[in-house]
Amino acid sequence: MRILWVLGGMVLGSALTLIAGAVLWLHDTGPTRSWIEVRVENRTGQDVRELRIEHDHGQIVHRPLGKGDTVALAYPVRGESSYSLIAVLEDGRQLRGGAGYIESGARTREVLEPERVVSSDP
């Protein structure tokens, strides 16, 4: 009788271990993803012809962004990421900025000033 209890405990432990492993594997590789939101404010005093966010798996392009306007752009990510922001002003100059490191589900704020990009948490 004692052998049956030990055998039953081993089978139950193995089954729970397999279920936990499957859940963790699905969590890491499953279709659900978190989004990263980048809010961009234009305080340059001129229109932005093109706003581009380049990230690990592609890019987002937004055209145009008027003086004083704000836009929120989002992209899906799993785990850690990074992005770079490129803004082409109406006079042809480019402003560059962006997060060197960002975690999934994060929100950032990028403020376009006449000579630079200021990054911060919202």
From TrEMBL:
Keywords: Membrane, Transmembrane, Transmembrane helix
Residue ranges crossing the lipid bilayer per the database entry: 6-26
Domain of life: Bacteria
Record's protein name: DUF3592 domain-containing protein
